[in-house]
């Protein structure tokens, strides 16, 4: 116990939002200190890591045959255990470099629908990467805390966290999730829908980065007051030569309809399963949107029209999850016990 106490004094405990698209790190007493893409560039056929985060993202889609840019997280869970471990180790070392001899205590956010095997993979990756203790917290709970919702009160709060790989929908009351659903649809699926549409409609292949740029610049879930046009460059699948297209925001909105409809239906289903008293609270308080993909133009209007419930954006949707985990880290061990997943493993 004394050893653990002394380790805590010298350790920079941290909370990590290990996202499909972006990893954020919060250090106790310092706030958010790192925000980088969840991408690793490795030498093909070896364990040699060439770049992680921002440097690796710059290589995405542009690497020679000897280098592979890997996204080790898919749909909010680990797709490549070894690469995730290397990425985590890099981020932990980068943040913790001055105290390399002392292992930090780490809280990691996970989607609410993950299996026990997936939880174990996250925990093992963090331990192998140098964590002293690893605690898991469900993303919707962390997002609700980060958005400043009164989760301990006996009233209904609904949070919708739309990230890169998953959409987390949860109704929270008295410090617990009353009903929640996890859908493996997020920003990645929107990018994929844009790639598939342009391929189908124009016989032109575009890369992930181009699709993401199109989504950010003119993607929408609801008709815009002023529609837009954009030049898109890709490779003609017939001639094999580079080609430039003019596409409109109406086309892109049409291409995104299927994944957006899936998100809307999941939210409606959650509302249908919510106990009546809590549903009444949600009508008064509204639905809170968090996660980077929730910033898609018109998403709030689309959800408001589909549900008849007020919809509000969190103050900083991209950092809600890691800020919520950070708040838990700053609190006492009793608060940590209340919200972490599988606390019996640790206490």
Total helical segments: 13
Termini separation comes to 12 Å
Main sheet properties: 6 strands, mixed
**Nearest-angstrom radius of gyration?**
21 Å
Task: Estimate nothing, just give the exact number of structural domains.
Answer: 3
Properties at a glance:
347 residues; alpha+beta; Nucleotidyltransferase, domain 5; Actin, Chain A, domain 4; 3 domains; six-stranded mixed beta sheet; five-stranded mixed beta sheet; 19 strands; disordered C terminus
Report on the structure:
This protein is 40% helix and 27% strand. The chain has 347 residues and is an alpha+beta fold. The chain has three domains: 2-142 and 320-345, ATPase, nucleotide binding domain (Nucleotidyltransferase, domain 5), CATH 3.30.420; 147-185 and 258-313, Nucleotidyltransferase, domain 5 (2-Layer Sandwich); 187-255, Alpha-Beta Complex (Actin, Chain A, domain 4), CATH 3.90.640. Strands 3-2-1-9-10-19 form a six-stranded mixed sheet, with helices on both faces. A five-stranded mixed sheet has the order 13-12-11-17-18, with helices on both faces. A three-stranded antiparallel sheet has the order 5-4-6. Helix 5 crosses helix 12 and helix 9 packs across helix 11. The longest helix has 17 residues, at 257-273. It is flat. The two termini are 12 Å apart.
């Amino acid at each position: 116990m004394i050893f653990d106490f002394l380790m805590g004094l010298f350790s920079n405990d941290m909370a990590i939002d290990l996202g499909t698209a972006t990893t954020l790190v919060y250090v106790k007493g310092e706030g958010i200190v790192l925000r980088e893409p969840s991408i690793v560039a490795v030498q093909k056929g070896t364990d040699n890591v060439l770049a992680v985060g921002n440097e690796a993202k710059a290589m995405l889609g542009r690497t020679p045959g000897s280098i592979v840019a890997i996204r080790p997280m898919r749909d909010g869970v680990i797709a490549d255990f070894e690469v995730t471990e290397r990425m985590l180790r890099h981020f932990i070392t980068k943040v913790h470099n001055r105290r390399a001899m002392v292992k930090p205590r780490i809280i990691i956010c996970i989607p609410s629908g993950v299996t026990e095997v997936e939880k174990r993979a996250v925990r093992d990756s963090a331990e192998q990467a140098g964590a002293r203790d690893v605690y898991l917290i469900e993303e919707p709970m962390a997002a609700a805390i980060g958005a400043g919702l009164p989760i301990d009160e006996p009233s209904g709060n609904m949070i919708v966290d739309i990230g890169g790989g998953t959409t987390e929908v949860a109704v929270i009351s008295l410090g617990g999730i009353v009903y929640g659903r996890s859908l493996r649809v997020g920003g990645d699926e929107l990018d994929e829908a844009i790639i598939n549409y342009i391929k189908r409609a124009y016989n032109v292949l575009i890369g992930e980065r181009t699709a993401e740029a199109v989504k950010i610049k003119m993607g929408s879930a609801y008709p815009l007051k002023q529609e837009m046009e954009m030049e898109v460059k890709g490779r003609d699948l017939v001639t094999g030569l580079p080609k430039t297209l003019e596409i409109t925001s109406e086309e892109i909105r049409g291409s995104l309809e299927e994944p957006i409809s899936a998100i809307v239906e999941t939210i409606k289903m959650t509302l249908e399963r919510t106990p009546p008293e809590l549903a009444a609270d949600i009508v008064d308080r509204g639905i809170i949107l968090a996660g980077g993909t929730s910033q898609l133009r018109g998403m709030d209007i689309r959800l408001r029209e589909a549900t008849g419930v007020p919809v509000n954006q969190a103050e900083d949707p991209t950092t809600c999850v890691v800020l919520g985990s950070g708040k838990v880290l700053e609190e006492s061990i009793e608060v940590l016990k209340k919200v972490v997943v599988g606390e019996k493993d640790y206490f």
